[in-house]
Specification:
This is Putative xanthine and CO dehydrogenases maturation factor, XdhC/CoxF family. It contains eleven helices and 15 strands. With 362 residues, it is α+β, with helices and mostly antiparallel strands. It folds into three domains: 111 residues, no CATH class; 86 residues, no CATH class; 149 residues, Rossmann fold, CATH 3.40.50.720. β7 and β8 form a beta hairpin. α2 packs antiparallel against α5 and α7 packs across α11. The protein is elongated.
Length: 362
């Protein structure tokens, strides 16, 4: 059976999606979910990284590969048979010494849980996927119950920003209030104790969004790279032949702009947003850039030569936009790596965006 483009990209990213977990649940057979709760020192993956282990040993996602991942896989296969869960720490400097060429020298604490499909658990991940598709956040709460020789069972619920709770986990009122007050707003799971009960609180923020204005050759490559690197994408173009879901199956949204005068209407641009402008004409680029400068994203980049950029900047300064604001735009867009082809230019842009997201040089 042919692999769909979406399936292919999910395999290439090695990032486990909630949709993949939901797909596994809907198949009806128990499987294991391994998640890094905490990491210290040098480790191949960080807190929040997840991996599914199917009963036949098939893996979806990764927690870093190597001997530790193999040990987690073996432990998960045992847990699936016993339908239990476990938290275990792995010391990479000891575990890997003499076993692999690469020694990381850190420590991982991993939650390994058996997920037994049922209506309530499926409803949790259905709600979670729906929140992601809408670009909204949620908080996944896992209650650990009945510890016995280090093993226990888990019940899960999803808490939405409005306080709506989906799932079987009974959340104490003080904890629910803390969640609704945004006391758990990070990106990593937290082990939380309350009245002798233990919970794992996993904020599920929406993915950073890359807004791509221009669905031509560079935009096409950029959208694929954005998906590979964990961004949610919104693509806009004034040509329906370019801006469509068949061309951009991974995009959260594809919009056709009859013109770009209201390019940002209905878009939620915030500090987790990144904007790249590469329309088919200088005037369109200027129109989009002018609107983008009245938003507050993490990044604005515009394609083109310095001559084109300076001409657009002069036009916008004549309209009252300050030079300081214009200087915040990355143009010519992308890292200077000698990129020539659309694929190379896409790589240079995505590399610059990742650099900014990771707090690198500006």
């Amino acid at each position: 059976m042919p692999v769909s483009p979406v399936q292919l990209w999910e395999e290439l990213t090695m990032e486990l999606s909630n949709q993949q977990i939901l797909d596994c649940l809907e198949k009806g057979a128990p499987f294991a979910l391994a998640a890094i709760l905490s990491h210290q020192g040098s480790t191949p993956r960080t807190s929040g990284s997840r991996m599914v282990v199917m009963p036949d040993g098939t893996l979806l996602g990764t927690i870093g590969g190597g001997l530790v991942e193999a040990k987690v896989k073996d432990a998960c296969l045992t847990l699936i048979r016993e339908k239990t869960c476990q938290i275990q720490s792995f010391f990479l400097d000891q575990e890997l010494k003499g076993s692999l060429d690469m020694v990381c020298g850190g420590r991982l604490t991993v939650l390994m849980e058996t997920l037994v499909p049922g209506p309530e658990l499926i409803s949790v991940f259905q709600a979670l996927v729906a929140q992601e598709q809408a670009g909204q956040k949620g908080v996944l709460v896992s209650k650990l119950s009945g510890p016995s020789q280090g093993e226990f069972t888990v019940q899960k619920s999803l808490v939405l920003p409005d306080g709506t709770v989906t799932g079987a986990c009974l959340i104490p009122k003080p904890l629910l209030e803390d969640i609704c007050d945004d006391r758990f707003s990070g990106r990593f799971p937290t082990v939380h104790s309350l009245n002798l009960e233990e919970f794992i609180i996993q904020p599920m923020p929406p993915a950073d969004t890359l807004f791509i204005f221009g669905a031509g050759h560079v935009g096409f490559v950029l959208a694929q790279l954005a998906h590979l690197t964990g961004f949610s994408t919104v693509v806009m173009d004034d040509r329906e032949a370019f801006a469509n879901k068949n061309r951009f199956p991974q995009a959260r949204q594809v919009r056709v702009a009859r013109d770009y005068d209201d390019a940002f209407k209905g878009l939620n641009v915030d500090s987790h947003s990144y904007i790249v402008i590469l329309t088919r004409g200088h005037l369109h680029d200027q129109t989009v850039l002018e609107q983008a400068l009245f938003t507050d994203p993490a990044y604005i980049g515009m394609i083109g030569s310095r001559t084109k950029r300076d001409r657009i900047y002069d036009n916008l300064m004549a309209k009252g936009i300050s030079k300081e604001r214009l200087n915040s735009v990355y143009s010519p867009v992308g890292l200077s790596i000698g990129a020539q082809t659309p694929a190379e230019i896409g790589v240079s842009i995505m590399a610059q965006i990742i650099q900014i997201r990771q707090g690198g040089p500006v």
